[in-house]
Design a protein that fits this description.
Two copies of one chain form a homodimer. By secondary structure, the first copy, chain A, is α+β, with helices and mostly antiparallel strands. Chain A has helices at 13-20, 23-34, 50-63, 81-87, 91-96; strands at residues 39-40, 66-71, 74-79. Helix content of chain A is 47%, strand content 14%. In chain A, helix 1 (13-20) packs antiparallel against helix 3. Chain A starts with 12 loop residues before the first helix and ends in a 5-residue tail after the last helix. Chain A binds a DNA duplex through residues 1, 22, 24, 40-42, 48-59, 70, 72-75.
DNA sequence: ACAGAAGTTCGATAAACGTCGTACAATGAG
DNA sequence: CTCATTGTACGACGTTTATCGAACTTCTGT
């Protein structure tokens, strides 16, 4: 069951922005960016149920923000930083930047 | 009826990203960025009705992306570029940048 | 005063969204 | 084999969203 990942050239800005416009998903992306080690879905401190997590990870994957690879029963998530930087230069950096005081 | 504009310090990233995640609104922002002259709502080539335009301009305004000032029967829209740059440095530039070939 | 132009307001509607719970499949440990 | 772990699939739910049309307000020109 190889989940669908869009190619870099197919990434759509509106779709990516929508994927990033949810607080839970924003937190996922922030944690992934903070520690570049791929991490299983359960390794995030989200205050929603498992099935909701599945939903959010799918939205991020189908938008092309993250990549998922199966490993045992876990699914390792990693940020598609290079692809995003190539297609939308500066976007991820701006989204991940701490808010100025 | 002075419409509500959020203060710069109150701009919320998720809200701004959501406001930018719609094709119509993205086009509005692009046109506003291309020509820094404030423009009336009707001056955009949108393929939706007037009342839908009202909706989109309100979403952008309440997210803090645009500023609206009344002038006669028109409402002039301008991008809050300085405020956005101050609060989310690089974000607007990344969103407005042409997609690399 | 009247007519036109520019937007808003107010339902309405159909679709998408975020969330949950339960049931299910697949893998790894004992 | 059995069982716990990890995540998915599916249906359900209430909310939000994007869209429209019709009626309305406000200003401007004549």
């Amino acid at each position: 069951m190889s989940a669908h990942h869009p190619a870099t050239a197919e990434l759509d800005l509106a779709t990516v922005l929508h994927a990033l416009s949810d607080p839970q998903r924003l937190q996922i992306v922030r944690e992934l960016a903070a520690d570049p080690e791929p991490r299983a879905c359960g390794g995030f401190d989200l205050k929603v149920t498992k099935s909701t997590c599945t939903h959010h990870f799918r939205v991020l994957r189908e938008a092309g923000v993250i990549e998922q690879q199966q490993l045992g029963t876990s699914r390792l998530n990693s940020l598609r930083r290079a692809d995003l930087d190539e297609r939308f230069p500066g976007l991820l950096d701006a989204v991940l930047a701490p808010v100025p005081a």
